[in-house]
Structure formats: C-alpha cells, structure tokens
Amino acid sequence: MSDVKVPAADQTLRILSLLARSRGPLPASIIATQLELPRSTVYHLLATLQEHGYVMHLLEEKRFGLGIAAVELSSAYARQEPLARIGRPLLAQLVDRVRCSGHLAVPHGRDVLYVLEERAPGSPSLVTDVDVRLPMQATASGRAILAALPKAQARALFPNKEAFVHRLASSDSIDRYSRLRSVLDETQTRGFSLERGSVSEGFASVGVPVLDHRGWPVAAIAVTFLEDAVAEEQLPELAAAVRGTAEALSSRIHGKGV
Length: 258
Prior knowledge:
Keywords: DNA-binding, Glycerol metabolism, Transcription, Transcription regulation. May be an activator protein for the gylABX operon. Residues 69-255 form the IclR-ED domain. InterPro entries: ArsR-like_HTH, GAF-like_dom_sf, HTH_MetabolicPath_Reg, Tscrpt_reg_IclR_C, Tscrpt_reg_IclR_N, WH-like_DNA-bd_sf, WH_DNA-bd_sf. One of its GO terms (biological process) is negative regulation of DNA-templated transcription. The chain has helices at residues 7-21, 28-35, 39-51, 68-79, 82-98, 140-148, 151-157, 177-190, 235-252; strands at 55-58, 63-66, 101-108, 111-118, 133-135, 193-196, 203-211, 217-226. By secondary structure, the protein is α+β, with helices and mostly antiparallel strands. The chain has two domains: 7-66, Arc Repressor Mutant, subunit A (Orthogonal Bundle), CATH 1.10.10.10; 73-252, Beta-Lactamase. The protein has a six-stranded antiparallel sheet. It has a two-stranded antiparallel ribbon with strand order 1-2. Strand 7 and strand 8 form a beta hairpin. Helix 1 packs across helix 3 and helix 5 runs antiparallel to helix 9 (235-252). The protein starts with 6 loop residues before the first helix and ends in a 6-residue tail after the last helix.
C-alpha cells in the first residue's frame, strides 16, 4: 500500500473523529486548535461536510456537531450484523426471563431501525419487526438513545418542527423540541425510557441504551407488553432486567455500563 496521504481527506476524517469523540458540538475555533489546523481550512471542510449532511451547524450556539449522514454511517456498522449477532442470545435470555417481547434497535437518522426482535411465547405480532424504521421520539428505544445523548446533540437532530414526522397515528403528541426535552429529562430522572400507546394502542414499552466505550448510545434494548399487564410499581423491576441485558451487551462491545 502507498504511504502517500491526501491532506484534505486526512483533515476531514480527523474533524469527524474529533466530533465523534466529543460529548457535544464544538466551535470551529476549538476544532482548529485541537487539530492544529488553519481556521480557514476548518471552515471550508466543515462547509463541505455540512453540505453532504455529515455535520450540522447549530447557528445560535455557533457550534458544529455530527449530522444525520454521520449518524446513519455509524448505525450502518450495527446493521451489518456484529451487534445483532452479539445481542441475539442476550435478548433471547431476557425475553425468557421477563416473558415480554424484546427488541434491539439502532439509531438511523431521526428514526430507530429494529435489528432484532424476540417474541415472547403467545404474544401478538408487533410493528417493531426486524428492518422496520419508526420515529425515534415515539419509541422507547429511540427515547432511551436520545436521553443518553448530550442535550446539544439531541437538539441538533431536531432543529425545527418539521423534524418531527408523524408516521404513527399517536406519535404527534411530541411535535416540538420542548415537549421532547421534557420527555427525555423524565427518562433520565427515571433511569429508563417509557412509552405508552405511542407505537401500538394498548401496548407499552420500556427501554435502556447500549453504550460504547465513549459512553455514546449505539443502540437500545426495549421490551413491549400489554399496558394493563404490568403495574406501575413493577416497571422499575422490569427495567432493571432490561438494564442488565443492555449492560451485558455494552460490555461485550467493549462499552461501559449504563
């Protein structure tokens, strides 16, 4: 292989790597300083990355964060089997233990993409089947992922009202960022995500994120059950079982506990 470097490609990848390692969006000046690059070069490269969707510019904060295209590139790794292979036996054990259908989902832009489903014996079929995409803000998996992101990064994913698609009849209850932020703050306080009837009427789900070595949410595990089958006081115990599985999967991908 040739040792010749392409400077623009090298600098672009360094910018993306820095944004991926950071806990939130960064000012262009900080990017230039940390990478020891001329500011003019950084601004030109960020403009190109923004044009192609790999970077988002948070105008009010004068910061840059990863864009939708970068998120999709990240989740592509999970879709290409490793995460699903590692997670399949863990999810099966969880479903056998709690007797609720379980799912493993990864972020896909502003959606979650379901890569595994393990149906509990006798449970009905659900819309959260493998390869189905659903709006992130409507699902327990998506809310778990969003709640684990830095606030600025979650805000960057939903910059305006148009970002809140309504492909589900009941998902329009979250149609603005202030409402989403309230739900995510509740999720962080509670320690697990919860949705009731947002995806399927009469069903509820709890979810917990799967974190990589940086503490970044790369996926989420959730279980779904009939709303009236699990009492409110039983939810923390159910969530603890889901958390144990998420922690085991995080550990197996060299992540850290949640």
